[in-house]
Design brief:
The protein has 616 residues and is an alpha+beta fold. Among the domains are: 136 residues, Serine Threonine Protein Phosphatase 5, Tetratricopeptide repeat; 62 residues; 149 residues, Histidine kinase-like ATPase, C-terminal domain (Heat Shock Protein 90, 2-Layer Sandwich), CATH 3.30.565. Helices cover 70% and strands 7% of the residues. The chain is built from 24 helices and 7 strands. The strands form 2 sheets. The protein has a 5-stranded mixed beta sheet with strand order 2-4-5-7-6. Strands 1-3 form a two-stranded antiparallel sheet. Strand 4 and strand 5 form a beta hairpin. Helix 14 runs antiparallel to helix 15. The radius of gyration is 34 Å and the shape is elongated. The protein starts with a helix and ends with a strand.
C-alpha cells in the first residue's frame, strides 16, 4: 500500500465514530503494518481497536484485534508477552461462548508455550484446541478453515513430539494430517513436516519439504517465512557437512531475517558459529556468537541448548577450557530439563502401561546421555586445571628468567661503563656505542616483561589519591621536554585554566604518560612538534597528546594496544619498539577506570586521547 493511502486510512480512522466503519479501518491499518513488519505500529492500532470494541461490548472484534497483537509478539519471539495476550483472548472467547474463537485462543497459547520450551503444556492446549474445533457445526461457514487448522495442529503435535525425541509418534501425527488433508499447501505445515523428518534423520525428505515450502512462500510473496526456510535448508547442508552450500543459504537467511526483523536471527548466528568453528575460522565464529549473545533473552530452551553446545565447542577449539566447561554445564542443565524432567512430567497424562514403559526407556537413554556429558565435563575440568597449572609455571619461569637476565644485562652495562671510564678516547667507537645501546634496549625490554607479568597477576586493590592533573603533568613531562629538545622537536603544553582534580594512582598514571610520550618522541622526526593539552568536560578529564610524526593506517591502529604489537615503521635512528609499552599503558588506564583512543593518519601524525573520571 502506498504511504499516501495509508496516511489517508489513519486520518479517516481518527475521524470515524461509527463502530463498524472504525473497526474496519483499524483492521486495514493493522494488516498493512503487519505486512510491513512494523510490529510496534500494528500493536498500537490493534490495542486501540480492542479498547473501543470492549467498550461497545463487541467481543469478536476485540478478539480479532488481539490476534494481530499476538502475531506481532510471536514474530518477535516475545513469548511471555504473547502468552499474556493469548490468555486475554481465551477469556474473551469463553465469554462470547464461540468454539471457533476458544479453539483459536488455545492454539495460540500452545504456540507460545512451544516457543518457551514448555512442550507438554503446548501439547495439552493443542489437544484442547482440536476438541473445540471439532465442536464447530459441520455446515459451519468456515468449515475449510476449521479442517485446515485441525490438520495444522496435527502437524504441530508431530513437531512437538520430535522436540521430545519421540520421532515415531511425530511421524504418526504427520501421517494423520496427510490422511485428513492429502494436499497440504500451507507453508507452515510443510515446514513443520520437514522439521519432523529432519529430527528423525531423513535429510532428503526434510530438504524436499523445506524447498517446497520456500517455493510456496515466494509464490505467495510471504516474506515472514523466507528467513526460517533459508535457515532450515542451511541446517540440512550442515548435517551433510557441506558447509559452503550451507553458508550460501545462511547468508540469505541472515539478510532476510534482519530485513524483516525476524525472531530466528539468534539461531542463524548460532549456526554461523557452528559452521565457522568447524572451518577453524574462529574470528568469524566469535563475531556471530557475540551477536547471538545480544539476542539471548526470551530464547526457547531448545534454541538455547544449541547455542550453548556450539559456544562450548568453539571455546574448546580455541583452548579456552574454562568457558568450554561453563557452557557445557549449562547445556547439560537444559538437557536434563528437556529430556529427564519433561519425561517424568509426561507420565502424569500418558494413558496405558505401554506409553509409561516407553517413557521409562527414554528416561534411561537420557540418563546415559547425561553420564556421557558428565564425563565430558570432567575431562574439560581436568584440562582447565592443567592449563591453570601451566600458566602458573609459565609466570614463575618468566619471572625467574627475566630477573636473571636483568642481572646479567646490568653487569654488561656496568662493565661497559667501567671500560669507558678507563678508555675515554673510545667513547665514539661504534662497537662500544652498539654494546651500550643494545644493552639498554634489552634492559628496557626485560623491565617491560617483568612489569607486564606483574600487572597481569597482581590482584591488589589500587591505592588512589587526589591529584591535580595539570600540576602532575608539568612535573612528569620535564624529562620529555629535554629529550624533545635533544631531537630538535618543539614541545608545547596547553593546560586548562582551571585545576582538574582526579582520584589517581600516581605510579600507574606515570606509566601511562611515560609510554605514550616516549612513543610520540620516538616516531616524530626532527623539527616536528608534540603538543600536550588538557580539558575538563563535566566529570571527565581529557588529555590530548598530539604529534606530527609518521602516523599509522587504521589496520595498525586497531592492533595498537595488543601485546607485542609494533608498527612496521622505524622511529628515529637507533630507536626501536618492543611492542609492550602501549599495551601496558592501556592496561593501567583500564585499572584507573579510564579510556584511551587513537586518531592517526599515515604521514600526518597521531593524537592519543585519554579520558579519566574527575571531580565535577
Amino acid at each position: 500500500m502506498p504511504e499516501e493511502e495509508l496516511n489517508k486510512l489513519k486520518e479517516n480512522y481518527t475521524k470515524e465514530t461509527e463502530f463498524e466503519a472504525k473497526a474496519t479501518l483499524g483492521f486495514q491499518i493493522c494488516n498493512e503494518y503487519l505486512t510491513r513488519c512494523d510490529f510496534e505500529q500494528c500493536r498500537k492500532y490493534a490495542f486501540d481497536v480492542r479498547d473501543f470494541s470492549l467498550k461497545n461490548d463487541k467481543l469478536i472484534a476485540a478478539f480479532s484485534a488481539l490476534s494481530y497483537v499476538s502475531n506481532t509478539y510471536a514474530y518477535q519471539c516475545a513469548n511471555h508477552e504473547a502468552t499474556a495476550v493469548n490468555e486475554e483472548m481465551l477469556q474473551i472467547a469463553l465469554k462470547a461462548d464461540r468454539p471457533l474463537l476458544i479453539a483459536g485462543a488455545y492454539q495460540n497459547i500452545g504456540a507460545s508455550a512451544q516457543q518457551l520450551g514448555d512442550y507438554h503444556t503446548s501439547i495439552k492446549t493443542i489437544i484442547e484446541a482440536i476438541k473445540y474445533y471439532e465442536q464447530c457445526e459441520p455446515d459451519y461457514p468456515t468449515k475449510n478453515f476449521v479442517v485446515n487448522n485441525i490438520v495444522s495442529l496435527y502437524i504441530n503435535l508431530g513437531l512437538l513430539y520430535s522436540y521430545l525425541k519421540k520421532n515415531d509418534e511425530a511421524i504418526a501425527w504427520c501421517r494423520k494430517a496427510a490422511k485428513a488433508h492429502p494436499k497440504i499447501t500451507d507453508i507452515r505445515n510443510i515446514l513443520n513436516i520437514g522439521f519432523c523428518y529432519f529430527e528423525k534423520g531423513d535429510l532428503a525428505v526434510a530438504l524436499g519439504c523445506f524447498k517446497r515450502a520456500l517455493k510456496a512462500a515466494k509464490e505467495q510473496n510471504d516474506p515472514a517465512f523466507f528467513s526460517t526456510l533459508y535457515q532450515n535448508i542451511a541446517e540440512v547442508y550442515v548435517k551433510k557437512n557441506n558447509y559452503d552450500v550451507a553458508l550460501t543459504y545462511l547468508n540469505q537467511a541472515y539478510e532476510t531475517g534482519h530485513k524483516y526483523k525476524m525472531y530466528n536471527i539468534f539461531l542463524i548466528c548460532t549456526l554461523y558459529g557452528q559452521i565457522y568453528t568447524e572451518k577453524n575460522d574462529f574470528d568469524s565464529a566469535k563475531k556471530y556468537l557475540d551477536e547471538a549473545f545480544t539476542l539471548i533473552d526470551n530464547v526457547p530452551k531448545l534454541s538455547l541448548q544449541k547455542f550453548y553446545t556450539t559456544y562450548s565447542d568453539y571455546c574448546a577449539k580455541i583452548e579456552n577450557f574454562k568457558d568450554a566447561y561453563k557452557y557445557n554445564k549449562l547445556c547439560l542443565e537444559i538437557n536434563n530439563d528437556l529430556y529427564s524432567e519433561d519425561l517424568i512430567k509426561q507420565t502424569s497424562f500418558l494413558s496405558g502401561e505401554f506409553e509409561i514403559e516407553q517413557a521409562k526407556k527414554e528416561l534411561e537413554i537420557s540418563r546415559l546421555k547425561t553420564v556421557d556429558l558428565v564425563n565430558s565435563q570432567k575431562i574439560i575440568e581436568q584440562k582447565n586445571e592443567e592449563l591453570m597449572n601451566m600458566t602458573a609455571i609459565k609466570d614463575n619461569i618468566l619471572g625467574i628468567i627475566s630477573h636473571d637476565l636483568k642481572n646479567h644485562i646490568g653487569a654488561i652495562l656496568s662493565a661497559n661503563d667501567i671500560f669507558l671510564s678507563r678508555y675515554s678516547n673510545l667513547a665514539d667507537d661504534k662497537l662500544i656505542q652498539k654494546i651500550n645501546h643494545s644493552g639498554n634496549k634489552a634492559l628496557d625490554l626485560v623491565n617491560d616483561i617483568l612489569y607486564m607479568n606483574r600487572i597481569e597477576t597482581d590482584s591488589k586493590t589500587i591505592v588512589l589519591a587526589e591529584i591535580n592533573i595539570n600540576e602532575l603533568l608539568t612535573s612528569l613531562l620535564s624529562n620529555f621536554k629535554l629529550m624533545a629538545k635533544h631531537k630538535n622537536i618543539q614541545f608545547y603544553e596547553e593546560y586548562s585554566t582551571t585545576p582538574i582534580l582526579c582520584e589517581l594512582n600516581l605510579e600507574k598514571f606515570r606509566i601511562v604518560i611515560d609510554n605514550i610520550c616516549l612513543n610520540a618522541i620516538k616516531y616524530t622526526p626532527e623539527k616536528g612538534e608534540i603538543t600536550i593539552e588538557t580539558k575538563k568536560r563535566g566529570n571527565t578529564a581529557h588529555i590530548f597528546i598530539r604529534d606530527t610524526g609518521i602516523g599509522m593506517n587504521q589496520t595498525k591502529v586497531a592492533k595498537l594496544f595488543t601485546q607485542y604489537s609494533t608498527t612496521t615503521h622505524k622511529g628515529s635512528p637507533e630507536e626501536e619498539s618492543n611492542g609492550l609499552g602501549l599495551y601496558i599503558a592501556k592496561t593501567m588506564l583500564d585499572r584507573l577506570n579510564g579510556t584511551i583512543e587513537v586518531f592517526s593518519k599515515e604521514g600526518f601524525g597521531s593524537e592519543f586521547q585519554i579520558k579519566i573520571p574527575c571531580q565535577g
